[in-house]
């Protein structure tokens, strides 16, 4: 009997759908299909064909936004309003990948600079790198798939996409739209499995030219160490994003933004606001305003359109986050809010001055919790912010230019946002984890660059 995977709602664990899983034979078949598709150069899709497919898929998704938003809320637990934003971003991402092809080109290499290079004309062209294996995460079950699949299609790489086990449905439905838009099934295949050894075999197979991995640092760095010779990769992990609130900050705007950035999707975002460093002159006023805003967040069923904070992806995650909060309180932190709403859903919590040795201070929480620390000098806040082996996005709130620029210069981050929370992102901007937080640069144009290679052609005139 063929094995199946039960996909349940994150909020109440009710069954959504039972789907078949792939076995080792299916993986071999899909890898062989992808390899043979790439090797048939005469069958490569032309740029205008790839553009048309991506744009048609975007249009099909646009006409089906409500269903996809509901699916994201069901399987991933993201509140419906935020899920609708995710669908809109996915539509935009498909179009971005298509439009990027208008600028996706090689360049002329100057010749004649030495006597030996006279009478030659040289230029580069872009070619697809080869078969792409993409392993995705649960927290943006549609848009992350677009980030991995759309660039591969745009540059002409056959791609095998493995969605996260708890959230495969958005991926499967998107791939159906791609095929409906005219993409041959051999160019984009899904791989559904709960078997980590099979997922590892997909990532490390010698036929794979590029691995795109979004998930835990432990797994990502392990897979990178096992890649076949010649395989390139991009890894996107998590962090513990720091935010500095300068004494000149507009507290109302800061509190509102940080409540969104810290509790969006219940904190299950790789650049979610986690560590907030507040100047001692305003700490009392900030805490009053921030805690009030956090306590006002509406918690509950993500399918209800007024819900702002939904469930964590698995019941065991609520248990883990609760244990981390308990450890922080036991070692001296003051707790505001917190508690359990349901088996899978936690009430947002704010921890004031947890120990720097507590898990919440030095590991990624990935839950609806933020930590607030007081500082006197900005150099002190920056030093503590930079003290972890993770670095991704960071931010500062300040109405004065000098501290804003100081933070922008000295914070160890790939992006520093000024007067905005750390979780801001657009899909055409570079998005990169530093240190243990990742490898390579994400964002659709940068991923397209990674999934391609340049070939130089040199023509001798006489």
UniProtKB/TrEMBL annotation:
UniProtKB keywords: Oxidoreductase
An annotated Gene Ontology molecular function: succinate-semialdehyde dehydrogenase (NADP+) activity
Domain Aldehyde dehydrogenase: from-to ranges: 3-457
InterPro entries: Ald_DH/histidinol_DH (IPR016161), Ald_DH_C (IPR016163), Ald_DH_N (IPR016162), Aldehyde_DH_dom (IPR015590), ALDH-related_metabolic_enz (IPR051020)
Domain of life: Bacteria
EC number: 1.2.1.79
Any coiled-coil regions, as ranges: none
PANTHER family per UniProt: ALDEHYDE DEHYDROGENASE
Family: Belongs to the aldehyde dehydrogenase family.
Protein name: Succinate-semialdehyde dehydrogenase [NADP(+)]
Gene expressing this chain: gabD
């Amino acid at each position: 009997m063929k094995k199946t995977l039960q996909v349940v709602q994150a909020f109440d664990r009710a069954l959504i759908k039972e789907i078949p899983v792939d076995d080792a034979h299916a993986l071999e078949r899909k890898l062989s299909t992808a390899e043979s598709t790439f090797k048939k150069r005469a069958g490569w899709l032309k740029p205008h064909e790839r553009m048309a497919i991506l744009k048609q898929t975007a249009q099909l998704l646009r006409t089906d936004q409500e269903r996809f938003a509901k699916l994201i809320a069901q399987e991933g637990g993201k509140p419906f309003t935020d899920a609708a934003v995710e669908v809109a971003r996915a539509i935009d991402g498909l179009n971005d990948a298509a439009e990027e092809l208008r600028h996706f080109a090689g360049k002329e290499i100057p010749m004649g600079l030495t006597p030996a290079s006279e009478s030659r004309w040289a230029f580069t062209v872009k070619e697809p790198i080869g078969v792409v294996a993409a392993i995705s995460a649960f927290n943006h079950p549609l848009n992350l798939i677009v980030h991995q699949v759309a660039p591969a299609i745009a540059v002409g790489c056959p791609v095998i996409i493995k969605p996260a086990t708890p959230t495969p449905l958005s991926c499967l439905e998107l791939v159906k739209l791609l095929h409906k838009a005219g993409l041959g099934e051999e160019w984009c295949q899904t791989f559904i499995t709960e078997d980590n050894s099979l997922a590892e075999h997909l990532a490390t197979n010698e036929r794979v030219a590029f691995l795109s991995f979004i998930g835990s640092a432990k797994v990502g760095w392990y897979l990178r160490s096992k890649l076949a010779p010649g395989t390139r990769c991009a890894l996107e992990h998590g962090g513990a994003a720091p935010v500095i609130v300068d004494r000149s900050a507009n507290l109302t705007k800061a509190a509102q933004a940080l409540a969104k950035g810290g509790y969006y999707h219940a904190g299950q975002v790789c650049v979610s606001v986690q560590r907030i460093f507040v100047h001692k002159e305003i700490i009392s006023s900030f805490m009053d305003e921030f805690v009030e805003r956090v306590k006002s967040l509406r918690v509950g069923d993500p399918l209800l359109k007024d819900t702002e904070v939904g469930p964590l992806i698995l019941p065991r995650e609520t248990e883990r986050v609760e244990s981390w909060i308990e450890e922080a309180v036991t070692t001296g932190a003051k707790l505001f809010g917190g508690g359990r709403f349901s088996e899978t859903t936690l009430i947002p919590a704010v921890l004031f001055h947890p120990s720097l040795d507590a898990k919440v201070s030095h590991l990624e929480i990935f839950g609806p919790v933020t930590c607030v620390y007081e500082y006197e000098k900005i150099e002190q806040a920056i030093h503590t912010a930079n003290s972890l082996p993770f670095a991704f996005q960071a931010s500062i709130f300040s109405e004065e230019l000098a501290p804003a620029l100081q933070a922008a210069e000295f914070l160890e981050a790939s992006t520093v946002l000024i007067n905005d929370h750390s979780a801001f992102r657009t899909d055409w901007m570079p998005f990169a984890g530093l240190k243990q937080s990742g490898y390579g640069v994400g964002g659709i144009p940068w991923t397209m660059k990674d999934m391609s290679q340049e070939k130089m052609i040199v023509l001798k005139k006489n």
